[in-house]
Amino acid sequence: MPNPTQTAVLLKSQNIRHVRLYDADQAMLMALADSGIQVTVTVPNQQLLAIAQSNTTASNWVSRNILPHISTTNITAISVGNEVLTTTPNAATVLVTALKYIHFALVSAGLDSQIKVSTTHSSNIVLDAFPPSQAFFNKTWDPVMIPLLEFLQTTGSYLMINVYPYYDYKQANGAIPLDYALFRPLPEDKEAVDLNTLLHYTNVFDAVVDAAYFAMKYLNYTNIPIVVTESGWPSKGDSSEPDATLDNANTYNSNLIKHVLNNTGTPKHPGVGISTYIYELYNEDLRPGSVSERNWGLFDANGRPIYTLNLMDSGSVLANDTTGQTYCVVKKDADKKMVQAALDWACGPGKVNCSMMLQGGPCYQPDTVVAHATYAFDTYYQQMNKAEGTCDFNGVASITTTDPSLGDCILPRSGGSNGTTTNNAPSLAPSANSTTSGGVLISDSVCISRLVGVLLWSTVAFL
Fold first, then answer.
1. CA angle, 232 then 238 then 240, to 5°
2. pLDDT at 412 (0 to 100)
3. Is there a single domain that holds both residue 296 and residue 345?
4. Which residue range or ranges hold the X8 domain (predicted)?
5. Who contacts 349 (Cβ-Cβ below 8 Å, separation ≥6)?
């Protein structure tokens, strides 16, 4: 996994302007210094009980984790815990106290106008979520939610909620159409209609967000904005997760970004942008659990995009949006003898520099004819400026949008030293075992979370 310095370089190369960290990692905060990137840090759940004991404990936490960095690192929010009500219920009774103590420490330091304080929630705390107008928070948590909402309203903060249409779709056992979860267009007669309000819902994301708005309204809070602190779709799954695919992940995140950046809003609040963090920045190869748990990232552990984000219609693109970027690779099941002959031609008459594939070179491994031919074919294709007919090689090659680079073997024009692509497009503002993954925010700029998340700030961000 890239270290904090490498991660900061990646964020800046991607024009990501907001990030969310799942802790307050000192090395990461130092790496983000003087970057201008807006940072949300997190008080880990295991520290809540201690912080809620006294103002002094909270003040010490702020002194250790915020004050040394605030002059150079643009810290704009603190999440006190992450999904506390559903993952650490023993700390629920002290949650609001912990928020108040952290906020008081910021007031004492003169930072309360710069740094907002809130806490993230799983959307599971909202019950009876459809139709959204009937939604309400789990009443078990009313003793927490009512004072929490009062605190958010009083301090001008926002409700943080994690929204995962993938899990809603998966757990619905066919009741939710895949297109509805992926923001794909639906015929009007297939749209979900809230019969109490006659509002039409064309996607799960909007329905969940509006359910949270209505749940706050049920408790008589109507002016607290929502920030979606996690949302995404896994690009790979096991046999029980057939819809965790590259195509679906690409479709969901691309459509989510367009939806947020267009300031579509939700049916309840049309035109009111929903700032959203994309979960997450990196795949987490060592995370336990199902295959999908390790494959939510926009980038792999080497900083290369996992898939193409198709954002052209939004007017803004992430630097890892390689729309229009294509590669030449060996066709699946191509005859190996024909592949070898084409490889020989590429390294000979084709004038491809094949020294990178010699033993000891960065493209020697894997030492297979397919891997070597892919390097040679794509190099030739790129050298010929992708001219028509330059990715054929007697029928054993085909064009793809998936970067075939492996390890240290970075194919020509597939990116810089970290494997990412760059462009001059406008910026977007938009986890577990490693503090170097994160989220991205979608906003009028882009954001990131865990080690790093990306936010779509009425616009888009990343985690």
1. 95
2. 66
3. no
4. 326-411
5. none
Task: State the catalytic residues.
Answer: 83, 230
Is 63 inside any structural domain?
yes
pLDDT at position 440 is 54
- Please report how the helices 336-347 and 369-383 are oriented relative to each other, as an axis angle in degrees rounded to 10: 40
**CB-based contact 354:304 (threshold 8 Å):** no
- Please list the rounded mean pLDDT of every run of 10 residues in the chain (463 residues): 82 81 93 92 95 95 97 96 94 96 97 96 92 94 97 97 95 90 86 92 96 97 94 94 92 89 89 89 89 91 75 44 68 91 92 89 90 93 84 88 77 43 25 41 38 42 52
Residue 183 is part of which domain span? 4-323+426-462
Q: What is the 3-state secondary structure (H, E, C) of the chain?
A: CCCHHHHHHHHHHCCCCEEEECCCCHHHHHHCCCCCCEEEEEECHHHHHHHCCCHHHHHHHHHHHCCCCCCCCEEEEEEEEECHHHHCHHHHHHHHHHHHHHHHHHHHCCCCCCCEEEEEEEHHHEECCCCHHHCEECHHHHHHHHHHHHHHHHHCCCEEEECCHHHHHHHCCCCCCHHHHCCCCCCHHHCEEECCCCEEECCHHHHHHHHHHHHHHHCCCCCCCEEEEEECCCCCCCCCCCCCCHHHHHHHHHHHHHHHHCCCECCCCECCCCCEEEECCECCCCCCCCHHHHCCCCECCCCCECCCCCCHHHCCCCCCCCCCCCEEEECCCCCHHHHHHHHHHHHCCCCCCHHHHCCCCCCCCCCCHHHHHHHHHHHHHHHCCCCCCCCCCCCCEEEECCCCCECCECCCCCCCCCCCCCCCCCCCCCCCCCCCCCEEEEEEEECCEECECEEEEEEEEEC
Q: Are residues 302 and 347 in the same domain?
A: no
Give the integer Cα–Cα distance in Å for 306 and 283.
9
Question: Does the pTM of the predicted model rise above 0.85?
Answer: no
Mark whether 205 and 76 lie in a shared domain. Answer: yes
User: Do 335 and 256 sit in the same domain of this protein?
Assistant: no
Is residue 72 in some structural domain?
yes
CATH of residue 82? 3.20.20.80
> Looking at residue 356, which CATH number applies to its domain?
1.20.58.1040
Q: Do residues 228 and 276 lie in contact, with contact meaning Cβ atoms separated by under 8 Å?
A: yes
Q: Which two tokens stand for residue 410?
A: 């970075």
